[in-house]
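User: structure tokens for this one?
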Amino acid sequence: MSDRIKVKGCVKKGYGVASGQAGNPRFPQGTIEMQKPFFRDRGLDLSGYFPGTINLSIAPCKYAVKQAKYTFKQVKWSPNDPAEDFSFFDCQILLAVDLVLDALIYYPHPETKPEHFQSPDILEIVAPFFSNLAYENELIITVSSQQINIEC
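Assistant:
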């Protein structure tokens, strides 16, 4: 675990568009569900992940991307919006002393994203479903120091 950085964060309410909870008619099942086939066609299968994101504030820390595990350029996933670039980074959620959940940090590149921008302390995480997660919960995650840096 020497190349892993551990950071504590707080679960925050997001825009609700990734999961479809916002009720946006452009994304009725949510953006993640709409994007899944495009990522699968490029080599990343998200079928085992909940179709939404955990918005984890790591404030006062911020993150800096280094080398993504996956990067997909010019993904035209929505008929009414321009193509976007996406990157994904390895992440683990530490749920208990002996329970680690493999997850991914989901990073729509801000320079190609048309709306719903995140604060620089928010990591968007896609993970398999797990119960008892609520806003303001504290989560501890680890990230690969080769892929992403945490600056406190």
